[in-house]
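Preliminary data (for renewal application), thiamine diphosphate complex.
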Amino acid sequence: MFPKPTLTKEDIVKFENEIAEIFATGAIRAPVHLRAGREDQLIEIFKNNHIGPQDYVFGFWDSHELALLKGVPREEVKKAILEGRSISLCFPQYNVFCSGIVGSLMGTAVGVGWALKKQNKKGKAYLFCGDMSSETGIFHEAVKYAYNFDLPVVFVVCDNGLSVMTKTREVWGSDEPWFKGTKYEKKIIYFKYVNGYPHSGLGKLIKF
Ligand SMILES: Cc1ncc(C[n+]2csc(CCOP(=O)(O)OP(=O)(O)O)c2C)c(N)n1
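Predicted structure:
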């Protein structure tokens, strides 16, 4: 029912390029968030952690790649984006839940981890977010709770150095994320990348 994703970097790049081309025509009447430059890291994370049907993936406005890697068929992801759901992709049958609201779903991921543990079920909740999101209060609370109760929750922080157009490091006055060198690192996968696209859209006005 859930084919193991065998997506390559090229598949992901091709998908995002295709969406970018469609978005440029004005055919998508909603925000679209494209990403490039973290394909290798995401593929590695899905592979190394054997993320499969039993796992839950939570993401935010930039989750095209996550849905594809979790095994949602390309055409289903594309259809949802064309219908205007790029920033809130949800595919409950594949355990993929995303939201355009900063910080949302972090508590949900912890709750799902709690339920999985209580019910002795296999699987983990994986919460993917950006570097600025990892500085929010709710992220701290979620990580502390998941650590304290040893819940099957993994937080993945994809650091592109920016919050929309604001430099995260200038805001927080630190070169390292707050969790670096703390015991909470045990619950967090962290990597840096440079986004090949603007935060949102294509960086130019699209008329429709
Ligand atoms: C509650 C809320 N406040 C503000 C925004 C607008 N917003 C969308 S993304 C974002 C920046 C997030 O930065 P980061 O977590 O680093 O994500 P990335 O750069 O990887 O997209 C902001 C402020 C929002 N979506 N939700």
